[in-house]
Amino acid sequence: xxxxxxxxxxxxxxxxxxxxxxxxxxxxxxxxxxxxxxxxxxxxxxxxxxxxxxxxxxxxxxxxxxxxxxxxxxxxxxxxxxxxxxxxxxxxxxxxxxxxxxxxxxxxxxxxxxxxxxxxxxxxxxxxxxxxxxxxxxxxxxxxxxxxxxxxxxxxxxxxxxxxxxxxxxxxxxxxxxxxxxxxxxxxxxxxxxxxxxxxxxxxxxxxxxxxxxxxxxxxxxxxxxxxxxxxxxxxxxxxxxxxxxxxx
Length: 249
Ligand SMILES: [Zn+2]
Description:
Elements: E1 2-9, H1 15-25, E2 30-33, H2 46-54, E3 58-61, H3 74-92, E4 98-100, H4 108-116, E5 121-123, E6 143-144, H5 150-159, H6 163-173, H7 179-193, E7 195-201, H8 203-209, H9 212-222, E8 228-230, H10 233-240
Parallel strand pairs: 1-2, 1-7, 1-8, 2-3, 4-5, 6-7
């Protein structure tokens, strides 16, 4: 099976531009949003969240205030993940099933709290995965919409202790001229062998770096392909992962 999914973190108002771009390509997306402004950054208002949802996108939790969850005590973590779910559900009038760890940081206690809060799964920032089999609360990604240099990738992979990703990068991907080429190469691998191609990013970063054209080029490449299933993170999880490690793909 071949899947494409995308996810977008932080609830920046530029997410609306991401949504337009995705809609134009018929590519689904999950938007992970915190509920209070942090670092002076604006976030989407409740009406904007509702309109994203009614346009077919998924809204997932990204905590209340975007802290590094492993640095908090258990009670504080529980508050961040539960309150976020409840408030989003009040806004949207439906269950919120997916969560995304702020800064990609999590540990066993955080996973337990996210699971106990009633989420079905959570997305990490572990790169260079195309696997259809993964732990539901450790959903990996394939690529970030960001022009990391070689050292940036190595730092990210090292920090996440992502040895499979490091191996993939060093043996097959290191020579790709740009992040867009990396994305195309990984998508070609999914087309050939099956798997999940999962692009994630931050719209505020795409705006700051002025890489909207590059994002469009990559979406042009992966969209509307025969034999590929396009799904939000939550749908994808329910299609590929029935609990812990089993897969229907
Ligand atoms: Zn974030």
